[in-house]
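Annotators were shown the component list below and the corresponding predicted structure, then asked to write short factual statements about the assembly.
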Amino acid sequence: MKKNKKEAILNAAIKLFSAKGFKETHMSEISKMTGAAEGTIVYHFKNKENLFLTILTEFQENIVAEFARYNKEKKLKTGLAMVEDIISFYLQLANSMEDRFLLLHRHEAYVRAHASAAFRTHLEAIYTCFVDMFERAINLGKKDGSIGVVPARKTAIIIFGMVDAVLRFNTYGLYNAGTLFNELNLASRRILTAG
Amino acid sequence: MKKNKKEAILNAAIKLFSAKGFKETHMSEISKMTGAAEGTIVYHFKNKENLFLTILTEFQENIVAEFARYNKEKKLKTGLAMVEDIISFYLQLANSMEDRFLLLHRHEAYVRAHASAAFRTHLEAIYTCFVDMFERAINLGKKDGSIGVVPARKTAIIIFGMVDAVLRFNTYGLYNAGTLFNELNLASRRILTAG
DNA sequence: GTCTTAACTGAGCGCTCACTCAGTTTTTTA
DNA sequence: TAAAAAACTGAGTGAGCGCTCAGTTAAGAC
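Structure shown to annotators:
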């Protein structure tokens, strides 16, 4: 039963980084949680910073894959219906990848992005991915008439931000996302149709 | 020229905490930045955690004061106009208290809030303050007819979240807040009037 | 001027933590 | 099955950190 401690380390690190933060998570904790020696962590990931970057890289790849899958599979009638569906998709995704989204909502990654181009690239890719989804749906809606005259990109950013904010409030324990779900859909519909 | 290093320490700590985070900011850096000895920091604030809490406490008091001042001074014609004005007010406030808002957008404070009731109370007070502002304007608008039938509290949360998201995107260098300002106003107007 | 109190200093201490490395165990290769 | 490669171990190390404390300097009281 040697081998494959790598995966376990990665999973433990995701949990700990998202719950406690980068600096506050210690190699000894990851070690204890996985049963792997600290040396093993270094053996696989070189150092703590690189472990963090590896997690972010995999997360980005996952998101992009989900995005591609969604775009292929889902064929909804109108662009407006698609926007609403993407809101649900996003909230469900956040639910099933809770810890990694928590990581995304931490500020830390953005601090690191200032120093490291790799961090920056990954973060931008993730956000762009989501905004692109909304933008695409808005453009479709403008064509099929379900969405009025709005600037697609900017409106996509606004709506994505609105949804993400609710998610963040939920994460921070300030307001419950579930009770705001209907308002979220209502608000997006109004933003898109009044034009 | 003795005395009043306290203020300097507070200002330096705000800058450093918001730029680098709690754990990543070292007493030695605050010391170097202010010219005060590390012992002086401890003399005034007991320890690092308490220094952080002091900053948050002062910030909350500032916000509440600004809120009270705004509510007394500003008398706009309609509730809808008031909502739009609050959006500007919020963005201006964030601009003039940039570092403290950055602190608010860090996740750290919320992690600490889980352990410390004091942190939690301050954070909730700050958010509640802003949501209250929006809610009050929405209720006024519903009475004067400028705003349609919407659930005031929930809609206030949604709009506040939307505005705060744009601010955060700006902070992270993802999208520019200035170019989204018009869309922000347009979106809020649509959310509030279509009902 | 003298005494008291508050503000301030910085070398030093104890501790934590990321990372090293020489060695062991398992898996793969031939 | 023997040799080579890969995976893994954990005591040890050294750098860095928050905080202490005995002492110094300045401000205010009388």
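Statements collected:
1. DSSP finds ten helices and no strands in chain A.
2. The first helix of chain A runs from residue 5 to 20.
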